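OP here, attaching both records as promised.
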Amino acid sequence: MRGSGSAPTGWRCGRWRRNSGPDPGRWPCGRPAPVPPFHRFRRGSAPSRPRAPGSGGARGRSPLGNGERAGPGHGPPQAHPTPPYATPHEIGACHRMQHPVGPPLPPAHPPIPALPPADATTAAVAVLLIGPAGAGKTTVARYWADTRRVPTAHISLDDVREWVRSGFADPQSGWNDHSEAQYRLARRTCGFAARNFLANGISCILDDAVFPDRPVVGLGGWKRHVGPGLLPVVLLPGLDVVLERNAERTGNRRLSDEEVARIHGRMAGWYGSGLPIIDNSQQDVATTARLIDEAVARTLAGW
């Protein structure tokens, strides 16, 4: 019990209380006294209940209440020795230490040698030859495939379209849903064949009249079916040369002069597209094939 001048009454409610005088935690008027900062004991450092010597403490704790186990033959915990510290003189000596000199260490990762640029005459590539009717696409593509030093296939879109014998959508009849459906089918068939040839190490060259301003008959469809590595090259001779070559055609592949002129005018949109353009108006087939090799080499080199 709390009282003035009364003898200590020991423990109450598991707490240590000092009852030998006025409560130090209150003012004489009875109000709580302010608690100084950091007044609370840290865990394990509060005064412990007096116990008999050698009892070992409750639950294996040390009588000192420091949280360490007490066992037979163990005394109070020993303080750890203070680690030695280096003097300023020793620190200066470390900085003046001479390290052994030896050969430089090799780099952790040796540099990877750069690969040589691919040879356009031997690399397995897929080339799309673009041009208007009468530009000589089929003739040049067949010659280019025949004269390469590696296996090369020629895939002509017009030939694949003519696989349809009954119900063929004649281009001379105009562009409609029927002709567009057959064109899409022929383009997917050509793309499937080109991918199979490339997968077996055989190059291929395709030819088609791809319009730059028409998404349906566009370059994106070819890249979607063949792959992003498709290399387009444009053949664009003069209009007079195109009209002369178209007049030599026969059958379904011969178009009217008006249609040829209209297609040639739309093909002029490839200028400024960044694609390699070859004007083969005054070039023979062999020279045009060599110019295709040069254009493919520049594309492979990233020029």
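Record two, same layout:
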Amino acid sequence: MYINYGLKNDKKGWVAAWHEDATQAGNYVLTLQTSTGAVIHAIEKQLSEEQIDELIRTVPKDSTGI
């Protein structure tokens, strides 16, 4: 699953793992891989219902919650 991120949502990254934010309901904490191969941890996003459904179906959940 790809998602936009950055200050203006102008960058696109592949979601490698995720977990629900324990501190803020409705937020998801994502681990992204960028187009250059870099891995970015702890991107916090509020997602649409469609994005949540796709996330749950296609991306492994990070059970560590880190």
